Amino acid sequence: MVGMRATILGLAAAVGCVLSGSAAFAYTATGDRQFPAAVLLPQITPGDEFYLTYNTLPLGSSGPGTPDRVSNFTTTYMKTITDNLGIVLEETGTRVGLVGAGALSGWQNFDAEIKYLALNVPEHEFLVTLGLDRETGGTGTTRVGASQSGATTPRVYFGKGLGDLDIGYLRPLAIRGLVGTQFADTAPRPNLITTGLIVEYSIPYLQSKVQSFDLPDVFRNLTPVAEFTMTTPAGKSFGARTTALIAPGFAYAGEGWEFALEALVPMTRATGTGVGVTAQLHFALDFLFPNSIGKPLFSVQ
Amino acid sequence: MITRREILYLAGGLVLLPLLSRLALADAAAGSVVAVHGQCVSEKQGRSVPLKTGDAVAVGDTITVPADGKLKLRMGDGSVISLASGTRMTVAAYQTDASGQRQNAELSLAQGLLRAVVAPVDHPSKFEVSTAVGTAAVRSTDWFIEIQPNGTQVGVLTGTVSLSSRATGRAVTIPTRWGARLEAGRDPVLGRVWAPAEFQAVISRTDVP
Questions:
Q1: CATH superfamily of this structure's domain A2-288
Q2: What's the DSSP call for residue A235?
Q3: Which of A2, A14, A139, A175 is the 20 to 30 A CA-CA neighbour of B168?
Q4: Do B185 and A286 touch (CB under 8 A)?
Q5: Residues A41-58: pLDDT tens digits?
Q6: What contacts B201, CB < 8 A, 6 or more positions away?
Q7: Which residues does chain B have within 8 Å of residue A293's beta carbon, measured at their own beta carbons?
Q8: CATH number for the domain including B196?
Q9: Which residue of B has its CA nearest to A301?
Q10: Domain residues for B53?
Q11: Where are the domains of chain A?
């Protein structure tokens, strides 16, 4: 029973990791392309941003005392060191609901990432970023699935807008994605391959680059988004299974802030058994405080 | 007893007064040339006059900077306007009060690039640059506006600029270190942080030693 519970908590933790690796693309830009807030995948470029993310997802319970829901509340702070180099600091609080036994609460391991914008081609709305994420083992709460083992994840991010193509009203389309491998410090934590993809259609881009329609204000700042993320064990799994989520929703851009709301649709039973929801409130510090905390620590400007 | 002739003179005067004041305003000095390179000219009422350091620039003047030229103006309120090569700009209005503080400044940019270091004022005032596709309005700031083949581009070194579309009326706020673009007939493109190289490019083009 103890072993089974540990396994289930491990699954909850895996789901928690998928969900808590959240960030936003708000104000990530290349040329005239703005990549708005997204919730599941991390930011693809360095930036000066602060955001809060909440998500909740039902799990497949195996009876009394087993998890039936996992919820995460994540705080993320991004800081640019130079114009192309930045760090991301992230802390996630997790609540695991248990059938007939209340809930367990605690912290996930502290997470930090360094990112370098390696390639930016504005005329083709294309960029590539290299990231190195470090999860510090033993800094979280084991009862909600935080591992005693740390992990290091090198990642490659990309973003591509289709605005440079002669495709008319499809020019507001853009895709973003990442590929990474999480290397655990010690067993029994498995190594994981993580991938993610976002497809979006930017109404602001339509209005400003293709054709301005007489739309209500609420639609002018809206970007419909569909995110997909998958994590699968590489090598010895230690009981971990593939998790995958599709998250359709939207991002709404204000001046210096964004709000994103998405449904969470599990694609595997190990991910969850019902539709969840995630929301994010995002503040662009480089817009709100351009002369102080919103600028790089070291910049030629 | 007022005679009929006096009434006619009075009526004529009332009609002519606004016209005369408008002419006087058009001739009012808005600023002066503090640095010039190349054969920059000022056009006023069909006359084209070469500009040299110290020359006055008046409301109504259209200033043309040739492809190999640059020009720097110091306006009556202390604002400094630098024009890059290939720029054509008209001083549509430039009013200051008795203390030299700006009340209303309107520039019209037909082509090229200008940098405006706008002097702060302690009361509500207007500093606007209009282009064919929209208007950029500021209080006090150091910024750039450039006509491009398909629209207008604004970059802000310090301060805040509001860029609005003439066609749709929509506006974006552009803070320090940000830039935004506006294409004809459309909403402004959402702003973004400009790279240092982008600022350096417009700084060097408007830098008048």
A1: monomeric porin ompg (2.40.160.40)
A2: S
A3: A175
A4: no
A5: 988 999 999 999 999 999
A6: none
A7: none
A8: 2.60.120.1440
A9: B196
A10: 4-206
A11: 2-288
